[in-house]
Amino acid sequence: MEPITVKTKIILLLAAPLVALICLKLYLHLQVKAAATQVARQMSPVADISFGQANAGLDGTLSVSNIQIRPRGNSDPLHIRSLSIELPSFWYALNLSRRLERGELPESLVLRADGVRLNANGQLVQRFDDLAYASDTRAMTAIYQADCPSRVSMLLSQQYLLGFDDIRLDGHIGYVFDKDAQVISALAGIRQHGAMAINLALSFELAGLDPLSLMQMLERQVVHSASLELVDEGYVRRLLHYCSRIDDTNPDDILDDLLDRYLALFDTTPMNPTAAMVDDFRRFIVRSLNDDSTRIQFHVRPTEPRNLAYLSLYNRNDVPLLLNLSTELD
User: pTM, whole model, 2 decimals?
Assistant: First the structure.
C-alpha cells in the first residue's frame, strides 16, 4: 500500500471542516423539518397543515416554505410562501434549543412571514373580522353602518370591493441589541401588496439594565429613537375610485375623511400633530392618487433619551419639539 502523499493529506485536511459543516447543516435542516412536522401534527385537530421544504441557512436563518393551512370547517386555505426565524449566526441556531432551556435569548431575532395569501372574498377573511371584533360586536355593527371609506378600510372582508382577488401579505417582527451603544431596537412591519405598507422601529436605551429584561425596559421606557414609515401602493386611489362611484361621494370629502383618520392616530399618543405634519399628511394622500410608491416617514430623534412615561406631563403641542419629531415625504 502506497503511503499517503503530502498533497493528499493537505486536501483531506482542508476538506474535513467542509464535510463537518455539511453534516451540521444537514442535522439542523432535519431538526427544523422535525419541528415543523410536530407543529402540524399538534394543530391537526383544528387545521390541516402541509409544507414543502425546511431549510437551515449558513447565515442563521431557519425557514419552512410552501405552507398551506386549511382550518377545519373552512373551504378556504391560507397559503404562506415562507416562514422564517433569523438568528445571529448558524452556530447560534445549532445550539438554539440548549440556549433557550438555559433562558438565554439571542442578541437579535426576527420572525418573518412572506407571501401570505388568502381569498379576498372567502370565508377565512370573514372569520378574521369576526375574531378581531369578537369582544365588541357594537363596534362591528357601527363599522358596517359607517360611510364607505371607514367601512371598507376597517374590514378585511371588504377588500374584494377594491378589486383585490387575493389578499397578499408580508410581515415581520423582532429586535436587535447593540451591545456597544447599549440600545435595543424593536422592529415590526406589515405590507399588503398593492395596498399599503407600515414599518415601525423603536429603540430603547438600556444603560444599567438587563438587555433581555422586557419588564425593566417597559418600566423605564427611555426612548433613544423611533421611526414610522407608511407606503401607499395604490390603496388611496382604489378607495377613492370605489367610494366615489358607490356612494356618489365628493372625492374631496373622501380625501378629507382619510386625512382625519390618519390624524386620529395621534389621539393614542401624548402629542398633537404640528401644522407641518398635517400638511405633509395631506400631500401624502394627494400624491398617492398618482404614485403607487408614495412614502411618508416620521422620525423621533431626541437630543437626549426621553422617558415616555413623563411625556403626558407636558402640553400635547410641546411634545413634538421635545422628541425632535420630523417628517419626510418621498
Answer: 0.83
